[in-house]
Amino acid sequence: MTQSLAPQAPFAAPMIDRLSIRVVVDSAYDLFAPKQEHSHVAIDHFSRTPGRQMSTLACEWGLSLHLASEKDGARAEHMLDFGYTPEIINRNFHLLDIDPTKIEGLILSHAHRDHYGGMSGFVEQYRHHMPSELALYVGGEEAFREKWVGKPEAPISWGTVDRVMLRAHQVSATCCSKPHNIGQAFTTGFIPRDSFETVTGGSMVLEDEAHYSHFTDAELAGKLVKDLHPDEHATCYIIQGKGLVVITSCGHVGLINTVKAAMAVSKVNKLHAVIGGFHLGPSPLDYIEHTIDELVELNPDVVLPMHCSGTNFIQAMRRRMPEKLVTSNVGSRFTFGA
To answer: What are residue 166's phi and psi, to 5 degrees?
Structure first.
């Protein structure tokens, strides 16, 4: 007699009271950034702290965010992405006085070096301060495959996430190809590609990685295909009385696709904020305008572009949705909710 399996419970996204996002790594830092005020988010820029006048925050092409949420007085903290190099994330993490003992988990949005490059050095520097059980949440097993850049006929390895290092430091990898509850946050899992958007990003992957070790250099050059980023996932929150916050990190599979995936997973249609890299820097102007057309329909309260979003997108937002736009700065903290 075959035993039937109990049906799996539907995914239930958690809800929180408050969310604080601190920009640890990004491309720009302005000590004299003008004060910003917005009715839906409290904005605090970083200023020099006593005793640290001889050092300053540093920038690079990459992204890292410190996420701190609260629910009924309980607090949860995570690191989302790790910039390009360990020198920058470790420097800024220290200057921003983030407490590593409070970090409950690590999240990698996708396996591009400008998002995971600083991870090994960060883990080596701070792991002994963190809880004994620590997970790295990735969008799927594909997050551990090697990425390649350059021309297909002369590819350059862009490296791979160091699984051996993670095991050595007792960081468990959790693959989230489906929606996953991470304490007070959740990830979207695989993001369907249902809108007008195209998958962007210049990396390549091996067409058949199962036989990677048998390839010669000549064979390798002929076996690379466009990376469709199946491992990219978004980190999201639902804030009580406000709605959905979607953090795209890079948005290679499309900003609109990502937001709609988060809405479908959470069953929340009210978009409170969309934050992070939107990968519109290299996009043509008509594509950017089409994206903003869709954003107008989604009607977020806050649009907070970072990293690869691009100046053309920010300028178009200033023209079309100025009341929604909030600009970013390394070290800044953005707080949503009560």
So the answer is: -60, -45
